[in-house]
Design a protein that fits this description.
The complex is a heterodimer of chains A (about 600) and B (about 270).
Chain A: E1 3-4, E2 8-13, H1 17-28, E3 33-36, H2 44-47, H3 56-61, E4 74-77, E5 85-86, H4 102-105, H5 120-128, H6 146-160, E6 168-169, E7 172-173, H7 197-208, E8 214-215, E9 225-226, E10 232-233, H8 255-258, H9 260-263, E11 269-273, E12 275-282, E13 289-296, E14 301-311, H10 315-325, E15 342-345, E16 348-355, E17 371-374, E18 393-398, H11 418-428, E19 432-433, E20 436-439, E21 448-456, E22 462-467, H12 472-491, E23 496-500, E24 517-519, E25 543-545, H13 560-578
Parallel strand pairs in A: 1-14, 2-3, 2-14, 3-11, 4-22, 14-25
Antiparallel strand pairs in A: 4-5, 6-7, 8-17, 9-10, 12-13, 13-14, 15-24, 16-19, 16-20, 16-23, 17-18, 18-20, 21-22
Chain B: H1 29-44, E1 48-51, H2 79-92, H3 107-116, H4 146-164, H5 175-187, E2 191-192, E3 195-196, H6 198-213, H7 225-230
Antiparallel strand pairs in B: 2-3
Helix pairs in contact in B: 2-3, 2-5, 3-6, 5-6
The chains are: A alpha+beta (about 600), B mainly alpha (about 270).
Chain lengths: ~600, ~270
């Protein structure tokens, strides 16, 4: 039986990027805010100091910062005819835990989606006709446009201090930036990071072939920066222990380095860590959230009443909590009806390994988001008519790390062990690069999330069940993009290359990316979206849901920039409209 | 540079009511007592209540550094198992004129300590039944822990070798025979006590590489031999002067989180 606590005004479930942004905004407006976080408190000095943070085994291989599958995991199958089985150890994606969420251990690749990405269905249908799209593809417009989001992309980038080179300032194309990006109202807060040898050579080759290379926008900062909240970040030192690690250097934008020092000074804020929310409670009408229940690490159950609830857990867990709380109609594969769990999507990544003679790339000199990229083959930046697929991705020579357990490449055909393996590792470590493609993944009728009928978490709650496979459209896209990337790489005159497009069935085993998306998407129609265009639940007006959970399908970019922008967009509507007159912001 | 906390100006909380907003219910005395009880309880448990208003809840000496592996006898393996694993890792990563092999790099010590710890007992992994037949895309569904797998397969390997090679254990075989056995494990042609040895080969190869390349603090990569071999500078934290030096070998020796010159213990 839950012990009822005194009411507060606002409860935030999950203190990651979006929870921290919302907590800062709402406490600043004078509200009492309680954030309830499943994992531990984490800060730079205590949890990832430079003295022991650069530990590949502990953090990258043994997943020290991620949620333990024993705490919670999900089950997986490629199609509805299979029996889903639990993910017993993390592989394809790494789900976060603790204060800061995935913002602690992300790469900090900080992109804006393209203007056409937000009106995808309309745009593709107008350009190519409805019949060009696969019949079972369920892509949608987002209900919000790039122009509406622009001030909020800007807000997130200026919170983070993002380092980059603008390609489009108020409609004016800029040299050395991304000519395909949507217009931005002002330059990046800080200049682009320095580029190592491999990215510079790759960019020269891309340019010779008529493409427009530009530095990847990075949340690992090129120089010290003080954000609008008054928090200062230091310059990145290119240590190469970024993704999967906390930054010991205060150089990577995270809730710890941009928001929490301010938030923790607010007397109207409180964080409860080691507390996992189990349910959002509704009133008798089912249209208003009244409280959340949670269990602390001693197994005690508490009930925290609140006037407003923000569901800010990671994508997967947002969907699970909605289903377990009976909020919204669960998606039904057979009828295509229902919205909770609908339109799960992912990311279609691929790469080209290139082995060189007489080149020293020093690949360990790295940051999670340095590299040179092109956007010529992203989104609908090129005519898809001749190719028979839709979607695209950015590609480039991104140099996030060369940590030796996971980044000691050997040419194809090398034995896995013995003297020949050892020699190949030695000969190729400094002279190999791995340019990559970051491709979109559109949504389909048979890719969805629901509750598993068999497997339970440690509280006895059903695990999420993921049903997902790559579709022909995405596999064609991956082949096409990887071929284009290989052409650029060949121009660098390597000794040998290995193309690694995404082929066959999606596998939960090899790491690909943690960009899981969808399941409680935003939109304009409650029949096909869980949330309205302001991230407000269609069913429960005082519940807002944030994160990549909102994406109707995924674009060819890393998601966090867009997640941040959507969060600020939602907050803007809450402050300007909702708080004055609490109720549905959009009438269905 | 790390002026994160210092640079934050005290920002006074704007308590003014900026918007018409719902009025929270006043907490009852009973609920307040419950709240206090929560505070007291959670201070001692894993759950914590962190009240705003005082800044970052930073505590001195609250870090969680790794525990360095100490030299000494085997912790997980029997002496015979330890000898077999040393022989295995020294064929998977053989010594050459410049760089020590898996044995002298401490790969077996690394695996021994890992199997004695969280890794060996699959701590933190999802180990609830049922364990069903999986597609390759669904990942491993084995009910046994790495420790159980190693014990079982090392016993089986020992029995196979003694039966096949006139009572000799694996460690006593000539290198060519050792390699034949490892190849059989790799390609699935060798069955050990009726089961394929390939899953064991895969986990052994993975763990050997981990031991070879991980920080020496965990008992392998002795004297940072693997890092020196490939040119990885280890746990260095600042390459700003080197980002734009192209096609030039980084000149400084590696460092470990256990210290610049720290080696890891020799095998027992």
């Amino acid at each position: 039986m839950a012990t009822k606590l005194p009411a507060t005004e606002i409860v935030i479930i999950g203190l990651g990027w979006t929870g921290s942004i919302i907590a800062e905004s709402m406490t600043k407006a004078g509200f009492n805010v309680v954030a309830i976080e499943r994992g531990p408190w984490r800060d730079t000095a205590t949890d990832f100091p430079p003295s022991y943070a650069p530990d590949e085994l502990r953090y990258a291989v043994q997943h020290d910062l991620f949620v333990r599958p024993a705490q919670t995991t999900l089950t997986f199958r490629n199609n509805p005819n299979q029996t889903a089985l639990p993910i017993r150890t993390w592989g394809s994606f790494l789900l976060p835990n603790g204060v800061g969420g995935a913002g602690v251990h992300w790469n900090a690749q900080t992109w804006r989606f393209l203007p056409t990405d937000f009106v995808l269905k309309t745009h593709l249908t107008q350009r190519y006709g409805a019949k060009f799209l696969p019949a079972d593809m369920t892509i949608q417009d987002w209900g919000v446009t790039y122009d509406e989001l622009e001030p909020h992309f800007d807000a997130f980038e200026y919170l983070c201090g993002t380092s980059g080179t603008a390609g489009n300032l108020k409609g004016q194309k800029q040299p050395f930036g991304n000519p395909f990006e949507g217009p931005r109202s002002r330059p990046y807060p800080t200049p682009a990071q320095k580029q190592p040898y491999g990215p510079v050579l790759w960019a020269e080759a891309a340019k010779e072939m008529g493409h427009s290379p530009f530095p990847q926008p990075s949340g690992n900062l090129s120089q010290a920066y003080t954000n609008p909240l008054g928090v200062t970040l230091g310059p990145c030192t290119y240590c190469g222990f970024c993704e999967r690690f906390g930054c010991g250097n205060y150089s990577k934008a995270s809730p710890q380095t941009t928001i929490l020092p301010v938030l923790m000074r607010r007397t109207n804020f409180e964080a409860r860590t080691g507390c996992e929310v189990t349910r959002i409670k509704l009133d008798n009408s089912g249209k208003r959230a009244t409280a959340v229940t949670y269990i602390d690490t001693q197994g005690r159950e508490w009930e925290q009443p609140a006037e407003m609830v923000f569901l800010c857990a990671f994508q997967m867990f947002n969907v699970q909590l909605l289903l377990l709380s009976g909020i919204g109609q669960p998606y039904d594969l057979n009828t295509g009806q229902g919205v909770i769990g609908r339109n799960y999507s992912y990311q279609v990544t691929s790469s080209v390994q290139a082995f060189f003679d007489n080149k020293i790339f020093n690949p360990f000199i790295a940051s999670g988001a340095i590299g040179m990229c092109i956007d010529d083959y992203n989104g609908d930046n090129f005519d898809h008519g001749p190719y028979g697929f839709v979607g695209g991705g950015y590609m480039g020579m991104v140099q996030p790390n060369a940590r030796p357990i996971e980044a000691t490449p050997t040419p194809p055909g090398t034995p896995q062990w013995g003297a020949a393996w050892k020699k190949a590792v030695k000969d190729n470590y400094l002279s190999t690069i791995l340019p990559s493609v970051h491709g979109s993944c559109y949504s389909y009728r048979d890719c969805y999330l629901d509750l598993d009928p068999t497997y339970k978490d440690r509280f006895g709650r059903p695990l999420m069940r993921l049903t997902f496979d790559f579709h022909e459209n995405e596999l064609k896209m991956s082949q096409f993009l990887t071929d284009r990337l290989a052409e650029i790489v060949q121009r660098m005159a390597p000794r040998q290359i290995a193309k690694l497009p995404r082929t066959g069935h999606y596998s939960i085993v090899p790491y690909q990316t943690t960009h899981t998306c969808g399941g409680a998407i935003m939109g304009t129609d409650p029949k096909t979206s869980a949330l309205n265009r302001y991230l407000q639940s269609w069913d429960v007006h005082n519940l807002f849901v944030t994160g990549a959970t909102n994406f109707p399908q995924n674009a060819g970019y890393n998601p966090t920039g867009t997640i941040g922008a959507l969060t600020y967009w939602s907050l803007d509507a809450i402050h300007k409209q909702y708080l004055k007159n609490p109720g549905p912001l959009v009438h269905a | 540079m790390s002026a994160n906390s210092a640079a934050v100006n005290a920002i006074s909380c704007r308590s003014a009511d900026l918007h018409a907003r719902p009025t929270p219910k006043l907490p009852s005395r009973r609920a307040l007592l419950a709240s206090t009880a929560l505070l007291l309880v959670t201070q001692t448990a894993g759950a914590r209540t962190l009240a705003g208003g005082t800044g970052m809840p930073w505590r001195p000496f609250a870090g969680d550094p790794p525990q360095a592996v100490e030299p000494g006898p085997w912790v997980f393996f029997t002496p015979e198992e330890g000898a077999a694993v040393e022989a295995l890792v020294d064929r998977l990563i053989p010594p050459d004129a410049e760089t020590a092999g898996g044995k002298d790099c401490g790969c077996a010590v690394f695996i021994d300590r890992q199997l004695a710890g969280a890794y060996g007992s699959a701590r933190g992994l999802y180990m609830s039944p049922p364990f069903l037949q999986a597609t390759p895309e669904q990942g491993l569904q084995a009910p046994s822990t790495p420790a159980q797998l190693y014990h079982r397969m090392l016993v089986a390997l020992d029995a196979f070798c003694r039966a096949t090679y006139a009572g000799n254990p694996f460690a006593q075989l000539p290198d060519g025979e050792k390699d034949r056995i490892i190849t059989g494990m790799e390609n699935g042609s060798l069955q050990l006590q009726g089961t394929s040895a390939t899953p064991f080969f895969e986990i052994l190869l993975q763990d050997t590489r981990y031991g070879f390349f991980a920080d020496p603090v965990y008992g392998g990569n002795r004297d940072m031999a693997a890092w020196k071999m490939i040119g990885f500078p280890g746990a260095r934290y600042d390459y700003r002067d080197w980002v734009e030096r192209y096609n030039e070998r980084y000149p400084h020796p590696p460092i470990s989180i256990a210290g610049r010159n720290a080696g890891s213990p020799l095998h027992p």
